[in-house]
Amino acid sequence: QVQLVESGGGSVQPGGSLRLSCAASGFTFDNFGMSWYRQAPGKERELVATITNLGVSINYADSVKGRFTISRDKNKNTAYLQMNSLKPEDTAVYYCKATSRWSDTEFWGRGTQVTVSS
To answer: Closest Cα to residue 8, out of 22, 20, 26?
Structure first.
C-alpha cells in the first residue's frame, strides 16, 4: 500500500522555523522525485520545491529561495523541507508528492498545516 505521510507542521511566529517530513512507503523511493507543494486558503496549489530521485537536481519557487531547503534520505525513505525565516504568507497546507522517474505515476500525501502568525 502506497503511503506518503507528512508531519512537522504547526504554528510559528514570523521569523521562526519548521521542518516538514514526508515518510514514504509502498514504492521504491529511489525511483521517485519528491516535491513539496502548498495551498493557501482561496489560492491554487503551488510548487514550492522539488528534488530528483537521486537528489542530483533541486529547484525552488522564487518566493522561498534562500529560506527553504529540500532534502531526502534514502535510508529512511523520507523527504524533508526545512523552512527558515518564515513569513505570514507561507501559511498554507503543505503537501508532498512523489513522481516516478520512469512513468507518469505520482502519489500525493494528505498535507500538513503550517501557520505563521504573531
So the answer is: 20
Distance from the first to the final alpha carbon of the chain? 40
Residue 88, SS3? Answer: helix
> Is the separation of the CB atoms in 20 and 9 below 8 Å?
yes
Q: Could you give phi then psi for residue 29, rounded to 5 degrees?
A: -55, -40
pLDDT, tens digit, for every residue of 65-96? 999 999 999 999 999 999 999 999 999 999 99
* Separation between Cα atoms, residue 90 and residue 116, nearest integer Å: 7
Q: What are phi and psi of 90, to 5 degrees?
A: -85, -5
Among residues 93, 79, 83, 82, the alpha carbon closest in space to that of 24 is found at 79
Identify whether the C-beta of residue 10 lies closer than 8 Å to the C-beta of residue 117: no
CA angle at residue 55 from 50 to 59, to 5 degrees? 30
Q: 38 near 95, Cβ under 8 Å?
A: yes
Mean pLDDT of the chain: 97
- Residue the block writes with cell 504547526: 10
